[in-house]
From TrEMBL:
Organism classification: Bacteria, Bacillati, Actinomycetota, Actinomycetes, Micrococcales
GO biological-process terms attached to the record: carbohydrate catabolic process
Cited Gene3D superfamilies: Aldolase class I (3.20.20.70), alpha-galactosidase from lactobacil brevis (2.70.98.60)
Domain of life: Bacteria
Protein name as it appears in the record: Alpha-galactosidase
Gene Ontology molecular function: alpha-galactosidase activity
Keyword check for Hydrolase: yes
Any matching Pfam family: Melibiase
Keywords assigned by UniProt, alphabetized: Glycosidase, Hydrolase
Length: 683
């Protein structure tokens, strides 16, 4: 709903916009842009927002009002004035115009679950060209207070290392009144290159326990930036896609041309960290483009991690297939190495069966997968072309990323540019052929090289080229799913190096890491639901013959507490260890549809990389699944969030139960020395 208040002498015109769990108000006037002045979960709930403009725009040649590191307060954005608004279903659209420069902006707020997805479209209404350097995707101000700021650090094999600090420590009070100046404090998190989550996660939180908290995410696989900056007694959260300052982005708009920002997803919840992550979880579910085939949530076995490592053959695959089927897998994916002429890395792009590699041909392995009651899958790296692949010479130069007239090359890989029709046609042909020839029903789509800032082919700046490519790649993936609605598509990127909701809104699941040390996987799996939906969090479970029974249960626990992604030489396990695998798969199957409705809770806080005890609870309302991993000395763990609730061990049933007692109404678990793990049902 929306309404416009009549003008009063003591109040400016306002726009009210409400949906279940959302209540926003904006004001506007002749002397300032449209501002967001109220954001709460309902008409009677406390507002989180301090007044702030809804969009900021930076163009070449413009002045800026602040001499600090933030991206706030550029001239073009400050000159915007209200020209109209309307609602269309779940969307509120607000129109503004810069009467001096001719720039027009349409801001779209789309209700999605308890959150809002925000985009802005900038149109050049001037007579000459306009060069955009940055446009905010989302701006929300919060009064200065006792909030904690949470951000996620990431790297290959160490994804999702969350940090939490009081905002007052990150943005210190420098006594601006004494100096007669404004505060300049700014805390920023920025991506670099084409790994959108290779260094930091595109998600942040301002949490407070006794009031409304806010979470946000940048929904792009290209460059992004978010910041929390001091601004007139408030902290302004700015969410951005690629910018000139950080990503060499520029977009030239001829008269009449438009540019639309990457989406920003923003959620507000009454409560602290876990409450706002729950809201973000529901928002992510609301923006997914689900297909009927996604509803099954099948268990996938993949032959890569701690197993064949891109060295498949018929003789190696057949025992894996038989064991995976006995363990309860429903899909079997042949990972890298099935194509080319012997080098899976430099042969990438030649998506044709390697001659002589498979006795009886690849079809014999596919047939064995089906004969064992599973559905076949293959690994692809759609955007990669190896330097030894014939595709490197067959496709035109403009179909590849380039800088200064030369192809971008990373460790033997060239980067395809999906803006070019030849690149998309090459992958369309490969996918369609593999489906027709082998009946493939699952594709693992990988991405293993950070290609850098982007491409300057037909782009004013390489950051704009990267943005255009990632948008075209998402469109290609959506089109492939429309042609093949029965096929599942996984998004992988050296594990979790491109874990963003530009892709995750259309992909079936996300591999959360390439980490092969099961001890190190525990904090990755436990933190994953802060970045990706638990039902999309492809946590590898890869038992090995070298593991003890306790270590086997430890390794399998990660898979159960997300989206179980099975691997390992299962056929070599003795009966006791194999029984632990089957039991974990069965438990996951029993819970997978409840996991798809659950919210993550961290009873001991978001896990530290070296924590001795790690906890993750997937709360499905009246019942929950709780995992505890022990990696250090024996300890007693109190669970204050589970006061009065029953905690019962459900995995593994064959190993000793951990002692649980009650102290002052709180469950206390006696955790033995690790590595060891248990899963509990909470009622």
């Amino acid at each position: 709903m929306t309404s416009t208040d009549p003008q009063h002498r003591d109040r400016e015109p306002a726009i009210e916009w409400a949906h279940p769990g959302l209540h926003l108000r904006f004001d506007y006037g002749d002397d300032h842009p449209v501002r967001l002045v109220h954001w709460s979960t309902g008409p009677d709930s406390e507002s989180l927002a301090a007044p702030s403009a809804i969009v900021d725009v930076s163009t070449a040649g413009e002045h800026r009002d602040r001499p600090n590191q933030s991206l706030l307060l550029w001239g073009a954005g400050q000159r915007l004035r209200y020209t109209g608004h309307e609602t269309h279903g779940d969307e509120l659209r607000i129109r503004q115009h810069d009467p001096e420069g001719g720039l027009a902006v349409t801001s779209v707020f789309r209700a999605a679950g308890p959150g809002v997805q925000i985009r802005h479209t900038v149109r050049n209404g001037a007579l000459g060209d306009l060069m955009l350097l940055s446009v905010s995707s989302g701006l929300v101000s919060v009064p200065e207070g006792a909030h904690d700021l949470l951000w996620g650090e990431s790297e290959w094999l160490a994804e999702g290392r969350w940090q939490q600090r009081p905002i007052a420590e990150l943005l210190p009070n420098v006594n601006p009144e004494f100096h007669g100046r404004r505060n300049r404090g700014n805390f920023a998190v920025t991506s670099h290159g084409s790994f959108s989550s290779g260094e930091f996660l595109p998600t942040g939180v301002l949490a407070i326990s006794d009031g409304p908290s806010i979470a946000w995410q940048v929904e792009t696989s290209a460059g992004w930036h978010w910041e929390a900056t001091q601004n007139e007694g408030a902290v302004t959260v700015g969410v951005y896609g690629p910018t000139d300052l950080y990503h060499q982005f520029a977009e030239r708009l001829a008269p009449g041309d438009e540019f639309t920002t990457v989406p920003a997803g923003i959620c507000v919840a009454d409560g602290g960290r876990d409450a706002v992550f729950a809201a973000l979880t529901d928002y992510r579910r609301a923006i997914r483009e689900l297909r009927p085939v996604d509803a099954g949530l099948p268990v996938v076995y993949n032959d890569f991690m701690n197993t064949l490592m891109a060295g498949p053959s018929t003789e190696k695959e057949l025992p894996l297939i038989e064991a995976a089927a006995r363990a309860g897998a429903e899909y079997f994916c042949i990972d890298a190495g099935w194509f080319g002429h012997g080098n899976w890395w430099t042969d990438a792009g030649n998506w044709r069966e390697a001659p002589g590699l498979f006795t009886g041909g690849l079809i014999s392995v596919i047939d064995a997968i089906r004969a064992n009651g599973m559905r076949p899958g293959l690994w692809l790296e759609p955007e990669a072309v190896g330097v030894d692949s014939p595709v490197a010479q067959q496709l035109p130069e403009e179909a590849f990323f380039q800088r200064f007239g030369r192809r971008v090359s990373g460790n033997g890989h060239l980067q395809l540019d999906f803006r070019h029709p030849a690149a998309r046609a090459h992958l369309d042909e490969a996918v369609d052929r593999l489906v027709d020839e082998f009946g493939i029903e699952f594709f693992k789509l990988d991405y293993n090289v950070n290609s850098g800032v982007g491409t300057d082919v037909t782009a004013a700046g390489p950051g704009a080229g990267l943005l255009g490519h990632t948008r075209a790649y998402r469109d290609w993936l959506s089109d492939a799913q429309a042609r093949h609605p029965e096929i599942l598509f996984e998004s992988c990127s050296s594990g979790g190096m491109r874990m963003d909701y530009n892709l995750l809104s259309v992909a079936h699941l996300q591999s959360t890491s390439d980490q092969q040390d099961f001890r190190r996987y525990a904090p990755i799996a436990a933190a994953a639901p802060a970045s990706v939906l638990p039902e999309q969090a492809g946590n590898w479970a890869y038992p090995a013959t070298s593991m003890s029974v306790e270590e086997t249960a430890f390794a399998m626990t990660a898979g159960v507490m997300g989206r179980l992604y099975l691997s390992g030489f299962l056929g070599g396990l003795d009966s006791e260890r194999f029984a632990l695998v089957r039991e974990a798969v069965a438990l996951h199957k029993d819970w997978r549809h409840r996991i798809a409705e659950a919210h993550p809770v961290w009873p001991l806080g978001l896990p530290g990389w070296d924590d001795d005890v790690i906890a993750l609870q997937l709360d499905a309302g009246s019942e929950s699944l709780l995992a505890l991993w022990s990696r250090g000395a024996a300890a007693e763990i109190t669970l204050p969030g589970l006061r009065g609730r029953a905690v019962k061990q459900v995995y593994p049933v064959a190993l000793p139960e951990w002692t649980i007692r009650t102290a002052e109404g709180l469950p206390v678990v006696e955790v033995p020395a690790g590595p060891a793990a248990r899963i509990f049902e909470v009622e």
